[in-house]
Write a structure and sequence with these properties.
The chain has 445 residues and is α/β, with parallel strands linked by helices. It is built from 13 helices and 21 strands. Bound molecules: zinc ion (ZN). The site of zinc ion has 6 residues, from loops.
């Protein structure tokens, strides 16, 4: 009864003008959010157990009676993984009629993960994103230009919905080369620019050479950024660059930065966040359960991102608690200027290049401006390094249109680094993708 009432109030609050929503949510008692989360968790769990063949089968096999589960931690070692989505196909997770779908590419396998949603879910995600963007200062008179990639990616769809609620001018350029964007953007006088962080860095380098225009803020999604690269973007435009954190599986944003740029304010109304196993500093893999999805709910989905839940209040005063800046990934995938890359990507670009099956390792670095992907390959002296590099780039162009497009847009450097045979593997297992970028850790809270 009480939960129903809170839920109705919440629905009303999310439908208010963004400035009223922020004010209202800021004074909501924490117990109300807790009660709402628990009720929504129970409902989601029952829905999944009744209608999704994947969850029904998993719970049956493990002897889990969902009627007795009140909190995600009571599910013990049960989790949903990206591998489950690929192996069982998205249809096994469906609990309702889908209106749309998006994909997440790269990851650890060439098979994309597909995730289904309804228009209602899209609309609700748009409303909460609008509240977050309002909090960052975006208003109806602002002019938004987005360079988000519209191909199967969830973020432009959510942004489109959010700007509708904010009622501001919005043009979608798509992920076109930064120099083309630069030339065409000026006609619209955008004072808010959305794009992937590595793309924004390249755009900013161009703008430094050719001149800027007044910009209120820039917003990046889809990958992490070093504080050094953020500083380049901010100093060129003399405006802040804010980042969001999310996944296609979560339907976009799980959290977004505020003006403090000190972790991501998380959406506890729509997700139940956990870090079940943490180190002494509190860092562990982020696991989330969706709370308001009825087409393809996910129970305890393993994000593969290492972070910390920050429950202390933020200096900005917003009610929402935070997720600390992502420290690393738990799998061997890297999200960088090249795109979402895992070992299989490099296996493909090396196909018929190092035919003798020599060892290799991809090392992701950052040179202060952009990401550098170094492919270390063990070569004997008879191999000619420029020939190898040419063959690798030919494979990249032929097999990975998106990665090639990013290469041509200079969003990353790509180098082949020859190594002595036998020099790479000094342990039992060779880590194929080594991310050496120093992502700035959050300031102490
Ligand atoms: Zn804050």
């Amino acid at each position: 009864m009480l939960t129903k009432m809170i839920e109705q109030i919440e629905r009303m609050v999310l439908r208010m003008e963004p400035h009223r929503s922020v004010r209202f949510l800021n004074v909501s008692p924490p117990w109300a959010i807790d009660a709402l989360q628990r009720a929504r968790f129970r409902r989601t769990l029952r829905l999944a157990a009744e209608r999704s063949s994947f969850y029904r089968e998993q719970f049956r096999k493990r002897g889990i009676d969902v009627r007795r589960i009140e909190h995600p931690s009571q599910l013990g070692d049960f989790y949903t993984t990206g591998e489950d989505l690929r192996q069982h196909s998205a249809e096994a997770f469906l609990t309702g009629r889908a209106d749309t779908a998006f994909e997440t590419t790269g990851t650890t396998s060439p098979i994309p993960k597909r995730v289904f949603f309804s228009q209602r879910e899209l609309s609700e995600m748009g409303r909460t994103s609008a509240i977050g963007l309002y909090h960052l200062g975006i208003r109806a008179h602002d002019r938004v230009l987005s360079a988000y990639d519209c191909s199967f990616w969830v973020s432009p769809a959510v942004l489109r919905m959010a700007v509708q609620f904010l009622d501001c001018f919005h043009v979608e350029a798509g992920k076109i080369p930064p120099h083309e964007f630069y030339e065409r953007a000026r006609a619209y006088k955008p004072n808010v620019i959305f794009g992937e962080p590595s793309w924004l860095v390249r755009l900013s380098e161009l703008a430094r050479e050719r001149g800027t225009w007044p910009v209120k803020l820039l917003f990046g999604g889809g990958e992490n950024i070093t504080e050094e690269a953020r500083h380049i973007v901010e100093s060129v435009w003399n405006a802040p660059l804010y980042l969001s954190y999310g996944q296609t599986e979560s339907f976009g944003t799980l959290g977004a930065e505020c003006e403090r740029q000190d972790g991501y304010h998380r959406n506890d109304l729509f997700f139940f966040f956990e870090t079940p196993e943490t180190d002494v500093e509190g860092y562990g893999e982020l696991v989330y359960t969706t709370l308001v999805r009825d087409v393809m709910p996910l129970i305890r989905y393993r994000s593969t991102d290492l972070t910390r839940l920050v429950d202390e209040p933020c200096e900005c005063g917003l009610f929402a608690k935070r997720i600390a800046k992502i420290q690393a990934r738990t799998d061997e995938m890297a999200v960088c200027g090249m795109g979402n890359v895992g070992p299989w990507v490099f296996e493909e670009v090396l196909r018929n290049v190092n035919g003798h099956g020599a060892d290799w390792q991809a090392v992701i670095k950052h040179d202060g401006k952009r990401d550098v992907v170094e492919l270390h390959i063990e070569l004997d002296h008879s191999n000619h390094q420029p020939d190898i590099e040419r063959a690798v780039l030919d494979n990249l162009r032929a097999g990975f249109a998106d990665f090639w497009k990013n290469y041509e847009m200079k969003l990353y450097e790509f180098r082949v680094v020859p190594c002595e045979p036998g020099s790479l593997r000094n342990g039992r297992k060779l880590k194929r993708v080594l991310d050496q970028r120093q992502m700035a850790l959050p300031r102490v809270v």
